[in-house]
Amino acid sequence: MKRSLAGLGIVMGLTALLHGYIGWRIIPALDTYSVIEGTVGAYLVLSTLLIPRGFSIKSHTGIQETLHWAGLVLMGAFSSLLVATLLREGALVIGYFVLNAERYHQLYQGSAWFVIMFTLLLTLWGYINARRTAAVVPVNIPLAQLSKAFDGLRIVQLSDVHVGPTIKRNYIEKIVARVNALDADVIVLTGDLIDGQVEQLREHIAPLAQLKSRLGVYVINGNHEYYSNEPAWIAEYTRLGMVPLKNQHTLLTYGGQQWVLAGVNDYSAKSFGSSDTSDPVLALQGAPTDTLKILLAHQPRSADAAEQAGFDLQLSGHTHGGQFWPWNHFVRVQQPYTAGLHQHGRMWIYISRGTGYWGPPKRFGAPSEITLITLKAAAG
Q1: What does the pLDDT look like over 57-97, one tens digit per residue?
Q2: Edge-to-edge strand list for the sheet holding 313-316
Q3: Is residue 165 packed enough to be buried (19+ CB in 10 Å), middle (13-18) or exposed (0-12)?
Q4: C-beta separation of 149 from 256 below 8 A
Q5: Does the pLDDT of residue 152 top 80, yes or no?
Q6: Burial annotation 1-31 (CB, 10 A radius, 16+ → b, else e)
Q7: Exposure string (b/e) for 184-196, b if CB count within 10 Å is 16 or more?
């Protein structure tokens, strides 16, 4: 309890400090518009008070949910506001050395208005992008070693849905309807489906039980399952008709031939005190070696071990494609890839940008997706 309160105190203190910095740098440049100054000042105070609510939620209903929503929206706006303010600082430094006094003053005032408009437009556009139903993204993957029997195999991938305080049942129902219309051979869900406990979210994730494909629906865990009682969620996914793959594989048949679909526990499972460390080799134990082998691994950084284990294709998520600018440029600090299709040694890897979003309801430059993967036999 004391540690939790201390952490909240640090968040609130840092939030207040950064909001104060923004106010100090932006508000004086609006000195000819006292009403605007007051409005911006009031907004910064409100943002300072509500953003911490985005980090803490005890209920998914009523006033608690409303405050959580407000905190997350303001968190997304604050991110853009801070970045724009820092960019403005760079412009002012350059302008100080290259502009005369009159031009510099124009830059000083005009750039403050730019910060405000940039934040408003990016937050609005990002909100619209995040809240609309994920679009279907078709991806053809050429596998030179692929038997002709598997040519045309269609896999629908969902990832990082993050059902929780801002993504509810109605969003999931729309996703399920869109996926079922694709008539997939197999459906895979590559982790981070939820943000909360089973008893809070059971009703909202329930429509996933309606997912239909010829070869079944398969799921792996992500780091967020471990945040929220992973064993309970694996049991719930099983109850909904999904097949969990925890360092395991299953044999499926397409075109008259068997192929291997495997899944590993999240790359960071061990750090949560779990004994089921991610292990692609274990996931292949007992599987045939002379056929198509596809691995579901939540994080792209499983790719080295997957390629060494002999997989032909890895499907991942986790990154959200960075979710919104400029954080897409920082994903590579932790992960080998941000989004899309890449060749990793002899193995292909596809990273979904995610079917939902995490935290702020905001996407910019990294739209959500329902991935429709079609395997293609390639010569050579």
Answers
A1: 555 567 888 888 899 999 999 999 999 999 999 999 999 99
A2: 248-254, 257-263, 293-296, 313-316, 347-351, 340-344
A3: buried
A4: yes
A5: yes
A6: eeeeeeeeeeeeeebbebbeebbebbbebbe
A7: bbbbbbbbbbbbb
pLDDT at 53: 80
Instruction: Identify the three-state secondary structure at position 324.
Output: strand
Please, what are the domains in the chain? 2-131 (no CATH), 135-377 (3.60.21.10)
Letter for the amino acid at 31?
A: D
| Spatial separation of the C-alpha atoms in residues 321 and 159, rounded to whole Å | 12
Q: What single DSSP character describes residue 257? A: E
The tokens of 302 are what?
A: 């499983």
Task: Report which residue type is found at 282.
Answer: L
Q: Under a CB-based contact definition with an 8 Å cutoff, are residues 262 and 223 in contact?
A: no
Q: Where does the pLDDT of residue 3 fall: very low under 50, low under 70, confident under 90, or very high at 90 and above?
A: low
Query: Which distant-in-sequence residues (6+ apart) come within 8 Å of 148 by Cβ?
Result: 255, 377
| Pair of tokens at residue 6 | 């201390």
* C-alpha pair distances (Å), 318 with each of 140, 173, 217, 269, 299: 21, 22, 19, 14, 6
Peptide bond into 326 cis (omega under 30): yes
Pair 364, 128: CB distance under 8 Å: no
Spatial distance between the Cα atoms of 344 and 350, rounded to a whole number of angstroms: 10
Q: Using the structure block, give the residue that is written with the tokens 């056929």.
A: 291
Longest distance between any two alpha carbons in the chain, whole Å: 77
The per-residue pLDDT for 124 is 96
pLDDT at 356: 97
The amino acid sitting at 178 is: R
3-state helix, strand, coil split of the chain in percent (to 5) is 50, 20, 30
pLDDT in tens, 179-230: 999 999 999 999 999 999 999 999 999 999 999 999 999 999 999 999 999 9
